[in-house]
């Protein structure tokens, strides 16, 4: 999710991105509705189960992107509890950097089957994904030449 101060410019940028994804990478780009709200969905030219990109607008000037099937329905309409207040987010995203320049959060629970994604990995990486629960990143600019990134990886507990 990204908040913008110029929604019109952001919409123009999204339209340009949609055109590039469609023309250059041959994705099917179409307007669809998720919970009665208009969004844009990208589908790859070769059917890859689980690979869908959706973007749209939340209330005000916040645009969102999701990667995966049916994830947009968790954002639209706006959830009753903000992501930043969820237990999973708070346990994963580092908040020690203050002030910070932004946060990144990737919830991998339940894990995405690697065989359903077109990834350039050799061998089976499913055990790796099953071991990861979430990834959180916080960025902070230290000075004109350096940026600090705090990265946390939350692992699933294995069975003894």
| Mean residue pLDDT | 82
Question: Which of globular, elongated, flat, extended, rod-shaped describes the shape?
Answer: globular
Radius of gyration: 18 Å
Q: How large is the share of residues in beta strands? A: 25-35%
The count of helical stretches stands at 3
What's the number of extended β-strand segments? 8
- Report the end-to-end length measured between terminal Cα atoms: 38 Å
> Which regions are unreliable across 5 or more consecutive residues at pLDDT < 50?
none
Percent in helix:
10-25%
Q: Main β-sheet: number of strands, strand sense, barrel status?
A: 5 strands, antiparallel
- Determine the structural class based on helices, strands and strand pairing: alpha+beta
Largest beta sheet: what is the strand line-up?
A: 1-5-4-3-2
The topology string of helices and strands comes to EHEEEEHEHEE
């Amino acid at each position: 999710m990204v908040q913008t101060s110029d929604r019109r410019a952001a919409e123009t940028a999204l339209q340009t991105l949609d055109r590039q994804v469609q023309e250059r990478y041959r994705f099917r780009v179409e307007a669809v509705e998720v919970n009665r709200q208009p969004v844009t969905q990208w589908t790859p030219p070769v059917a890859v189960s689980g690979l869908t990109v959706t973007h749209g607008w939340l209330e005000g000037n916040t645009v969102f992107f999701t990667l995966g099937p049916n994830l947009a329905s968790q954002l639209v309409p706006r959830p009753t509890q903000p992501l930043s207040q969820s237990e999973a987010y708070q346990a994963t995203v580092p908040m020690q950097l203050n002030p910070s320049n932004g946060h990144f959060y990737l919830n991998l629970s339940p894990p995405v089957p690697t065989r359903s994604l077109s990834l350039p990995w050799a061998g089976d990486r499913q055990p790796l994904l099953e071991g990861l629960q979430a990834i959180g990143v916080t960025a902070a600019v230290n000075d004109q030449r350096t940026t600090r990134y705090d990265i946390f990886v939350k692992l699933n507990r294995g069975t003894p």
